[in-house]
Design a protein that fits this description.
Largest sheet: none
Helix content: 40-55%
Shape: globular
């Protein structure tokens, strides 16, 4: 994470392993018309959105070691409007359910020990 201390809201490496390839594919399908590749890593952008979501701070009050409001809000709005945010949520929910032995619909897949 670029040498910064992590926040409790940051994605874990396991979460990023699920979300990262999905967002890389999303970015490949949505090239900038100006050819701009983006100044901030997508993982840090997701971490900034997650920080704002967990703390309910105003966008302008994001910590200085996360991407700025302009970049964070840009991706937040894009992902909200094309429901990428819901896809990210679904991916992470499926990962969390699998970790505790539940199917995608919440049913138990393994017997209790």
């Amino acid at each position: 994470m670029g040498g910064r201390a992590s926040y409790p809201s940051d994605l874990t490496d396991a979460q990023w392993a699920v979300v990262g390839p999905f967002l890389d594919a999303w970015k490949a399908r949505h090239p900038s018309v100006s050819g701009h590749q983006g100044r901030y890593p997508l993982r840090e952008t997701v971490n900034a959105i997650s920080y704002q979501n967990r703390t309910s701070c105003q966008w302008a009050y994001l910590p200085h070691d996360l991407p700025p409001k302009s970049a964070t809000c840009y991706y937040f709005a894009l992902w909200r409007d094309d429901v990428t945010d819901q896809a990210i949520h679904d991916l992470l929910r499926c990962q969390a359910r699998a970790k505790v032995g539940r199917a995608e619909d919440g049913r138990r897949t393994r017997p209790r020990s």
